[in-house]
Amino acid sequence: MKSWIVVALIFFSSSSYAYRYDWNLKGGISQTWADLNGTGNTEDEMHGTGFNTHFGYKWKYFELSFSSYIYWGEWEDLTFEAAGETIQGEGTFRHVSFGPILRYQLRGVQPFKNWFMVVGLGPVWSLQTVKMDEFTSTGPKFNRNQKLAFESTGGVLSIALEEDLPYKEMHPVFVEFIYSYKKSRTLTIVDASDFVETNILSTEEARQDLSGHFFMLSIGFTVF
Amino acid sequence: MNTFRGMSLYQFLFAFTTLVKRVVVSFLVLFTLVPTVYGVSDVMSEEEKSERYKAQQKTKKQRSRVPEYRYGYINRRHTTEESLKHIAAIYGVTWVVYPLTQPDVVREKGSWKNYRRNFGQLVFDKDEPFWNWFVHPISGSQLYLYYRANGYNRVDSLGMAFISSTLFEFTVEIYTEPASIQDLYQTPVIGSFLGVGLENLSLYLLNSGNAFGRTLGHIINPATLFWFYEGKVQIIPQTNFNNSHGLLFTMEF
User: What is the distance between the alpha carbons of residues A205 and A162, in angstroms, rounded to a whole number?
Assistant: First the structure.
């Protein structure tokens, strides 16, 4: 009799896998810490708050999602080069990134009941918009009504713990730790004096400006 | 310790309480539910039935806040032809809505020369957060709610919103500016995220049974006002105060 109970328990427990072969939309909130490298080996730490969304398809253990991370932050002292001028000071920072991330669920790593480890990897394209509040500039061109927009490329590595529930309507939760490295490619100076209309003043190659290591902690759930 | 037919005390108490529960439930079923279905109407006179009917009509008039309709969403399959019609309809609307909502931008920056130059281009736009994180997600949420109102499930609504917004980005908005990476992603994805919230909130308000709630529900989810909305149903209890009772179910589509 006992053996039948054991067999029944194994049978029913093994049928409670999470949803498979289906599209999903996930979202969450995040905290970001970054070490930013500006011009001339200047460094600063940045802290940001934001949210992220992921739309993707889940196979049995693999999942490919298009992910976006958005956050706002600020730093105290960093140096940039723009329009032939060296700009140093403090300001606010707006970050948006997009990229496909391939994730794989490690079935062997289950630290808690129904929670499994998921690892992910992918390229990332991002735009970091910098608005200077207090700054000094070596030339007359850059002023308070302008903002700097850095287009960067890089990569993302993620390690997550995700709930494995039978239905996505049960809104499985995930906790994700993300490391990414980004390096700016182009720098655009934008006239931000008009709230409605954006005027691009110049675009140049950014070379080494605003590269950095980004560490993010994100918590979210499957919406549908 | 064996107490009764080889059972322990705990097993005996469990069996006894189960038996008591079954007896109580059986009595309840026999003396409450059965007479209401089979017995009462037979003993009522015609006069009593008439009085009860009048009382019910009076109560119905007094309780004017009883919701007339039930709002919800249905998920159904669509043919390719039907989906193409929806995409074409929304595409046509965007050609009208874009110049109407942003006449200054279209007048100052728009030209067919720009259209040819921007065709096929994809850039990071440098717009203010108001546009990228407010206007576009709001537009995306309304696209999502349009397709939900037409019977698409949530994932399909996001997919259809993605097709519609991509067509807008690559073939309409390029009259003034190149297609934007942020808009391509954020309009359908963050829009659907927002749309789910608006969907749930609007259903709560629309089914609240008061005019203020209904009005607010229609404002945040305008697709529920139009003829194409498939989730508006009417459920009316029906009775002849004899042995026939039922629900009249009416759905608009």
Answer: 40
